[in-house]
Design brief:
Blueprint lengths: L2 E12 L2 E12 L3 E5 L6 H8 L7 E10 L2 E2 L5 H7 L4 E4 L13 H10 L6 H14 L16 H13 L5 E5 L7 H18 L2 E6 L2 H7 L2 E6 L2 E7 H6 L4 H9 L4
Parallel strand pairs: 3-8, 3-9, 6-7, 7-8
Antiparallel strand pairs: 1-2, 1-4, 4-5, 9-10
Helix pairs in contact: 5-6
Amino acid sequence: MEEILRVENISVAYGKKRIVHGVNFSVKHGEILVIAGESGSGKSTILKAIGWLLGKGGAIIDGQIFFDGQEITFLSDGQRRKISGDAIGMIFQNAGASFCPIRKIGEQIFESVRSHRDWTHEEFRERAEELMQKINLAAEVLDEYPFKLSGGMAQRAGILAATILEPKLLLADEPTSALDAVTQVSVVKELLKLRERQKISIVMVTHHMGVAWRMADKILIMRQGSPVEFGTREEIFNAPREIYTQELIRAVPRL
């Protein structure tokens, strides 16, 4: 399989403080990479660097990021908009909060779609409802406001928004951490089905090693902004080299 994403020696700083130090990894087409570690380990910062979401004061100060053969480390706003939301989708930790609270879910997703596709509203509804059926989300959700959705429904709405254009790469920032255990399992299953249907690559951040066990092909362990260990799921869980990795595995039961 060919690479869809390659991160080479990436370092990130906010102001003068370096948050991420020299991270390297690659992701192939259809592969799932889980970046795991405790809070403050820099795992979400890596995801934000890939998705151009570092925010005020954040900057990549070293290294390169390649997506589908193209360097995307430093692109213009116009170039980013062409890729973000289309070829690269993003699921946030609290998907409900990523929607505007006073606008209906369907209106917001349709607006995003229209920036990349010349779909009519009828075409959008048809495609959205087809995908919603596959991710166990009622079509009526398109006509609801975000505050009316449960945590699981909001997270599925986030999955819908991130994947309706069938991106090649999905970035998922702690997509299960705000959910109860039953809903966590359900969302994990939906993401795995999505990978099989769309052959999408996923880079997912989590502190939950049970989620990593269920989802990952490869795992990158982070601690205090630096990579600790990288390997296949079996290598990390069956023969972890680092004490920190062993502690993470012991701390959380597998789903």
